[in-house]
Amino acid sequence: MNFIRALNSVWRENNTLLCIGLDPDPAKFPAHLQHRPDAIFEFCRAIVDATADLVCCFKPQIAYFAARRAEDQLEALIEHIHIRHPATPVILDAKRGDIGSTAEQYAIEAFERFQADAVTINPYMGRDSIEPYLAYRDKGIILLCRTSNPGGSDLQFLDVGGEKLYERVARLVSKEWDVNGQCALVVGATFPSEIARVRTLIGDMPLLVPGIGAQGGDIETTVRAGCTPSGVGLIINSSRAILYAGKGEDYANTARSVAEATRNAINFHR
Amino acid sequence: MNFIRALNSVWRENNTLLCIGLDPDPAKFPAHLQHRPDAIFEFCRAIVDATADLVCCFKPQIAYFAARRAEDQLEALIEHIHIRHPATPVILDAKRGDIGSTAEQYAIEAFERFQADAVTINPYMGRDSIEPYLAYRDKGIILLCRTSNPGGSDLQFLDVGGEKLYERVARLVSKEWDVNGQCALVVGATFPSEIARVRTLIGDMPLLVPGIGAQGGDIETTVRAGCTPSGVGLIINSSRAILYAGKGEDYANTARSVAEATRNAINFHR
């Protein structure tokens, strides 16, 4: 799968910009899953199978698996998505960032071990720290630009010669680093004017937008600020608001209802 | 173990500022280890046992383990260091960075699963992204400041209101973020004048300095630029130049010889 082409297909064929973030927290699982050894896999698998036609991507967050020694369940989950939902790209949310020789190892982790179609990366160490990922020409490289957390402003909002640091990151990635057209940027939904600003800097490059739902970002302003002229260009992520909408055995159906409502709310404003 | 106190003890009792980075690449292992299922653990264990009296820390790089599905060997390695060399702190080089709820999971990964005494963190997402680590009061939090790779200048060297971004990071960490005295900074050995600049900004805070050896940094300039007035304050890392100095069955002894020479070269200039 080529990530950018697959994303463009699934945006149109599934008519959705919604991405479901898979952040499995066993403390929040329904009771019937609590003591299964594969509870993390099974919790996510049921959500995936109940919602695949409503999303443009799934985005597992590796920290939730690593904290519980469950990398094997993450491998099984991504394999399941590829087999059962082969049109749907998987973004591994890992936010790695290191020098070239170590970045090569992280690229192997993301793309060969876990078979992700795209990975999130931290830009702080500069261009050569992302080159090992770019060598995988079909994969998506999604760089942090303007994050949705309160401390995101500490560095990202600093003025660097007449623009903000996050604007510089957007320009560097789109004009210099992304030589093969395989990059995207993370811009939080809590800052719609900054989504709009980044959109003017990067043309049609995809934006991964976390922060709607539990983090409080507004759907209408996000869509208006970030869509491309043809009404795509956004990967709008929701995690907890969908995953933990239901608490009983039918949690996956409840998740589907919330995902469907979220997709529809997004589409209403496109 | 309290990381900062342990570091101050081992600097003095072992009379060394040297840290050995454990970046195990099976392609470079001696032939007799090549087909062992626990080759990664065993390669590192022999290096550790041969050099523990020469170092102030060991620093395993998690990417090399994760790329090969060898987290279990990393767990076993850190446990081995704690049991056999209980005075020597372990820094998990992971360079994580994410919002609070995910950072909590990464802190569990580093401190509870892997039992590291300190972890490296990326500052791009700001203060609240490091708070979950700071909640572990005995642990060390080592933030990227000025990295040793060529692309390190792309963002870190930008001017932000009369200072460079890496200087702002150094000031933010030492004056605002490090409320419990548990932080340190990464500054590459390839930039000795910047090590000196950071030292003036942060007082006695420890500096983790990668980049001597394979990356070409100079020991004399690093030591003169970075030591505190009492001749400590530095964790000077060498990885490949020590790990892969020998290619035969006696590779651990060869590693010891190089480590000893490196420690002595550092001490000559203190």
From TrEMBL, chains A, B:
Q: Which SMART domains match?
A: OMPdecase
Keyword tRNA processing applies: no
What pathway does the UniProt record associate with this protein? Pyrimidine metabolism; UMP biosynthesis via de novo pathway; UMP from orotate: step 2/2
Q: Out of the domains of life, which is the source?
A: Bacteria
| Domain Orotidine 5'-phosphate decarboxylase as annotated: residue spans | 17-255
Q: Which Gene3D superfamilies match?
A: Aldolase class I
Q: Does the keyword Lyase apply?
A: yes
**This protein is called what?**
Orotidine 5'-phosphate decarboxylase
Q: Which reaction does it catalyse?
A: orotidine 5'-phosphate + H(+) = UMP + CO2
Example GO BP: 'de novo' UMP biosynthetic process
Which terms are listed as keywords in the entry? Decarboxylase, Lyase, Pyrimidine biosynthesis
Catalytic machinery residues: 95
What InterPro entries does this protein map onto? Aldolase_TIM (IPR013785), OMPdecase_AS (IPR018089), OMPdecase_type-2 (IPR011995), OMPdeCOase_dom (IPR001754), RibuloseP-bd_barrel (IPR011060)
Similarity section: Belongs to the OMP decarboxylase family. Type 2 subfamily.
